[in-house]
Amino acid sequence: MGAISIEKLDHLYWLGRYTERVYTTLRKFYRIFDDMIEAPEGSYTYYCKRLNIPDIYTSNSQFAEEYLYGKDNPDSLYSNMSRAFDNAIVLRDELSSNVLSYMQMALDVFESDNHASPLLELQSVIDYLLAFWGCVDDYVEDEDCRNIMKCGKYIERLDLYIRLEYHTKDIEKEFRKLLNRLHKTQMYYDAAKLEKLKDMIDAKIHCPEQAEGKDAELLDYLGNIIEVR
Amino acid sequence: MKSLQFTYRMELKFDQPVCDHYFALRCVPASNDVQDIQITSRYVSPADSLDEVIDGFGNHKYVGHYMANHMKFSYEVEGIARVKGMQVQPESLHPMYKYPTRYTEPTEELIEYGESLTLTAGDNLGNAIQIMDALYRDFKYVSGSTDIHTTAGEAWKKRMGVCQDYAHIMITLCRMKGIPARYVNGLMIGEGYTHAWVEIYTGEGWYGLDPTNHLHVDDYYIKLAHGRDYGDCVLDKGLFLGQARQTQTIYANVEEI
Amino acid sequence: MNMEQLVNHVDGINRLLARYGVKFGIYKNQTFHEQLFPFDAIPRVISKDDFALLERGLIQRVDALNLFLKDVYGEKKIIKDGVIPEEFVFSSSGYLAECEGACPPKDIYSHISGIDLVQGKDGNWYILEDNLRIPSGASYPLIARELERRVAPDTFRKNPIIDNRNYAKMLTDTMEYVNTGGIRVIMTPGRYNAAYFEHSYLAERTGSVLAMCSDLFVEKNHLYYRDYRGGKQKVGVIYRRISDEYLDPMTFNPESLIGVPNIMDVYRSGNVAIVNAPGNGIADDKGIYYFVPKMIRYYLDQEPVLRNAPTYLPYYEEDRKYVLENIHKLVIKDVAEAGGYGVIFGNELSKEKLEDMKELVTRESRRFIAQEVIDFQDLYIVEGDEKVARKADLRAFVLSGETTKVWPSGLTRFSRNPDSFVVNSSQGGGFKDTWVLSQ
User: Fold this and answer.
1) How far is B176 from chain C (nearest CA, A)?
2) Chain C residues within 8 A (CB-CB) of chain B?
3) How high is the ipTM of this complex?
4) CATH code, C310-372
5) What is the CATH number of the domain that holds B94?
6) Most exposed residue of A144, B130, B227, C392, measured as fewest CB within 10 angstroms of its CB?
7) Which H helix or E strand runs over C226?
């Protein structure tokens, strides 16, 4: 407690990112899963392209199984949940066993063999992740710790919102949350890139035609604000 | 008694920058009953932190660290030693010098050789000299024939080696015959490299013998460090981050003044 | 005892243990697996009187062992006085010459001792081995008790069970007593270590910083923890959960990729307390075990309260004679081997092998010890719907700080296999809570 090493900083930041990745993509998946009931085969291709992940899938139903549970698929939600857990488990002293237990339980859902009705089962992942964040606010005593995690969380959320074409109003809102946390931490961040990012998000809101096609650039700035390993 | 002026210099060059460099150096001779040491100059560069400590065997050790990138690391010790060799340094015996170690584990061949030697002197020193005589006859100095990892048993198999092997084999044989013995790193008169020899326990204290040269350790030797075997008293150890290839240059010079 | 509520809820407790990630790791075919450590609800119950005896015996034993370590790395009186033959010390791999002359703060070498015992059918307790390096296991009964109380409050209301949750406080006090003025650190080799759960849990419970080796560094002969802003904090006490050989690559194994370079010099200079001290392996060596009762008499001038399992040293002629005559019913242990290796049961050997063994014991008498097989009391476990008896041992934890204290609990491990004497967790066994009664 109280002393955050470079190693821990790294784990806190990536814990924030991976947890958010599982949470937001899982929520998005609810929509995709629903669409796929009527949609033609291969309707996940656009999603893969937007997320910039390789389209290794063969059918809608295979996508549903593999993208959620694929053990050897680095882009599956299971893999991302494992990474979140890997970062969390080395932080027991900072997080507390209480907080950590929600990560454990979320991972256990992915590891159970019950895939019969994925959305029914994975609802508890969403519940556990929300409980995790609530518990973080209550039990993680070190403020810096919480802020670092939340910086990771909002950077990931912005990244996904931009890729998945969320409304610019939402993007702006999340960006403000990121700014708020970033200013509270003592992490080193690239102020010039942050400024640039701010301008581009402003442009996205006020002159959307100008900002068109610049998402890649935007994501690049976003990914490089904070230097962690 | 002789007065010797000595210099020991080590330079490490890296072909790419390295960083986070820890070092531990046992290159500073200490005064004892045989040698009186006066250090005139010493430096370690680069170093953020440097401390002088004593290790478990009683050797002086410089330890420290350098964080930033560097391509070169060097240190130098200069001084004057007043040496009066060929005498016993009185000291109580630490039992650890009686038992085999990794480098001095007796192999079957060494046991056999040891059994073939009949020691007749009746005292530790005399018997150790007889072992040294035998080794001079039965083991050959061949530069480059072994390396720092070679054990007494491995060198003995080849019947050739360098000063480190002479010392390890002699220590193995001495301990087998009930004579406590230890490994010594140091400098010898002239220009060149570091040298290794042994000290045997006479019953009252330690006495130096140089099996490589078949000599008693006289006024022309300066001891840097000792231990149960080579592994206990490596002159310099380093640990750094980086993929660099390193080249080491050692300059050692001892002259009479 | 009334423990129905507890036993009925064993599944619930195991579910909670899973929730909190109470696991241990094992390597199978070079890959790392984490396993739940199965909990059996029927506790080992130690009466007040029995515990008083254990307490006296364990404190006495650990005090003697600490004095022995100070002596071995210092004056060596016990050797000079001929109580222990020097070759048992100086040719043992547990003896580290690099620790000669080091003075650990307050002269404590073994701060946390894990003493393994069994109770014989005759009711006597026997010491099986001393673990003075990095004994693990306290965290399991510690967290289990928390959950047991949550699930079965009635059981604890109705029975006079001493609360064992003071372990964190005991450990903190032990560390603070030797603290040289700095933060408290628990150093773990990382999450792929068998006892990683314990490292992280104890860090949480004691409010210590859980550090990886790379978070620590030596500067000006002091140990520091580096924070991410480039600042540093002095470390006053380090509870390291890596073994001696990996502790300092500049002193021990140079191939070690973990460890903190030059930490041994900081320790030797008295600038940091290392819990437990390096070099302790000499005191829990199988050969030295034989001499512990002699140590107690030598250093404390007391008769040992607790017995060793009857042990023979073929090194001594009288013992050798007994061993050779009775080898078929003895356990032969190679003193150089650890972790259950090099243990041979005489009654499992063929006639031919017995003769070979006799010859080996005669030729290399220093290498072996021989012990009587103890007929130990089984404990009941729940298997399916029935209660079955299984072999179990007890690891008692003794903490040495300002005074020496025995934790009123301990890790009871049992073997799942009815024929096995091995209570090793990696072989499918589980654990029980250990209750010490207050009346």
Assistant:
1) 13
2) 76, 79, 86-87, 89-91, 95-102, 217-221, 249-251, 254, 261-262, 265, 268-269
3) 0.92
4) 3.30.1490.270
5) 3.10.620.30
6) B130
7) strand C222-226
